[in-house]
Design brief:
Layout (H helix, E strand, L loop, with lengths): L14 H4 L5 E5 L5 H10 L3 E6 L2 E6 L2 E8 L2 E8 L4 H10 L4 E6 L5 E5 L2
Antiparallel strand pairs: 1-5, 1-6, 2-3, 3-4, 4-5, 6-7
Length: 116
């Protein structure tokens, strides 16, 4: 799997969501290797590319998040179609990721927290 430059094949984020500010943030408690997680997303037919030395951008038509480490805690941030937030949780569950998802509205107010 090549995650450099153009990344792996897969769907791109819908044009309607490209201009949306980040609205989803969260933690991945049991992830120790972001590259392995990125590869798992690719196997699940998500588009994956390396976005920095140890960061990965994963995307599909309804979600685009950056996977990164912050102070030893794996996190993610990006855009999700609000109606598809549960699909993001389902994806993390299918990859055996213990997650916390926070969904925000356009005003930056927390509207929902999703836990496993």
């Amino acid at each position: 799997m090549s995650t450099a430059s153009g990344g792996t094949p897969g769907p791109r984020l819908d044009d309607q969501l490209v201009a949306v500010d980040n609205n989803v943030y969260g933690f991945m408690h049991n992830v120790s290797d972001l590259e392995s997680l990125a590869r798992a997303f690719a196997r699940s037919r998500w588009r994956v590319r390396r976005s920095a030395l140890d960061e990965y951008e994963v995307e599909c038509s309804w979600c685009q998040v950056n996977l990164f480490d912050s102070g030893g805690m794996p996190k993610f941030a990006g855009v999700v179609e609000p109606a598809s937030a549960d699909k993001l949780a389902d994806t993390f569950r299918s990859l055996d990721v213990d997650y916390e998802i926070e969904l925000y509205d356009v005003d930056g107010e927390l509207v929902r927290t999703i836990l496993p």
